[in-house]
Amino acid sequence: MRKLLAMAITASALAIAAPASAQAWQSINQRQANLDARIDAGVRSGDLTRQEAVRLRGEFNDLARLETRYRSSYGLSDSERRDLDNRFDRLSSQIRFERNDRQDRNDNWQPINQRQRALDARIDRGVRSGALNRNEAVRLRSEFSGIARLEAQYRRNGLSVSERRDLDRRFDRLDSRLEASLTDWDRRHGRGRG
Predict the structure, then answer these.
(1) What is the pLDDT of residues 59-70, one digit of tens each?
(2) Predicted model pTM
(3) In whole angstroms, what is the distance from residue 70 CA to residue 78 CA?
(4) Residue 107 DSSP SS3
(5) Shortest CA distance to 136 belongs to which of 181, 190, 186, 183?
């Protein structure tokens, strides 16, 4: 009797647990939305290069086609669902890895917002010291805003290496003009820069 009762309790527990575990499985649409959002966030933050994003989306599309093929034969079997889950888990891990690696990037490259803080501080010091007048400060900040807008445009599809180089060149030219203005003022007023 106890054995029969234990088997009945076990069977009931399994019957209750089965639907709960089935509900935990995410559909292709849920996974696609989640993975697309993670890839987009990686592109916007600069954690993923354009090439990495294209490759990851290609791998995702391969999985979507595989699911379609699996479903075409009267729905997903348990083994097909497990296979898709494992493949999605691997892709998710790959996205996490790609977003956190620093491979194929210049580790010294600073996003525009970090550069803007440093530039603003230098311009403010130049205005306070008299090395820059307000019009020069406005012009320099306006030019920097143009670089920031260009970076935002480039980031829509992920920053390529050539786009980073372009931003670096533009920022370096701006930085050189600022430095020249500050150095010129110091020379005229008998101060050394150091």
Answers:
(1) 888 888 888 888
(2) 0.43
(3) 11
(4) coil
(5) 181
